[in-house]
From TrEMBL:
<protein>
    <submittedName>
        <fullName>N-acetyltransferase</fullName>
    </submittedName>
</protein>
<dbReference type="InterPro" id="IPR016181">
    <property type="entry name" value="Acyl_CoA_acyltransferase"/>
</dbReference>
Amino acid sequence: MPALEVRPFRRADRDQLTDLVNMHVAAVVPGVSVSVNTVLGDLERQPGEFITDPWVAERTTLVAEQRRCVGAAAHLLRYRADAEVGETYRDIAEINWFVHRPTASHWPDADRAADHLMRACLAQLARWNVRVRYADGALPAPLVYGLPRNWPHIRAVYERAGFRHTGDTEVILVARVADLPAHEPRPGVTAERTLGECGTRFTASADARALGFVEVDTALARPERHARAAGLADIGNLHIDPAQYGTGLEHWLLAQAADWLRLCGVDRLVAYEMAADSARLDLLAGAGFRELTRTDRGWEHRPG
């Protein structure tokens, strides 16, 4: 049986690790890949997580090497236990992401490598002696978080190791901008474009009163971080006054956003909703969105 070594990540592993990360990203989001610099930067800090990243006390990345090839890798975080850290994160540790090659004819012992790596991860979590151990799949790419249903091989490793899904399930949806509702006049209603919390905001107003808004983030494809994500944007927020339900205002707002996205050269728009919120999912389906995948958030180590 080929020699198997589980060891800390080395800089010389960077290209193979990036290839492994991109294999997993490609199974979740169409047309997206990340650069070597993005992966290396994520191992040092996560600039997008501006609230939780400063709470991290330790980071470590482990790989499983077989036949001089990185077949599995994991990134672990330990959060501080002081009062500055949010209560949910205080004195916890997590497998921030875990990737490995699935079993194939040319890689029949892939599961063995993954299980060896997982044992090393659990040993590190035990040495940190934290109050709770979690796991996730938050790769440094848009829309890749939780444990996507597209990774049954990762789910199997987590479950064999004693991790259990204790959180929520989210649905990730995608629409072609060309399929979004067409712009139609709406008497008495005006649209204003401003900067919102999560991107460019389009607000519908009538008689100086806001009726609802939608925000779109067109900055997902930062060239220094992503090798390929052009043409992709996401809905940061979509809010409608309850009195406007059923009037088609949601579609009208999405049409305003679609005109802007076409000017930005964006051809795909993504959204995410809780799996339990059937009304919101139906609304988006009626606007041209289709389900891309589901992802299960919140995995806690509960052996036995």
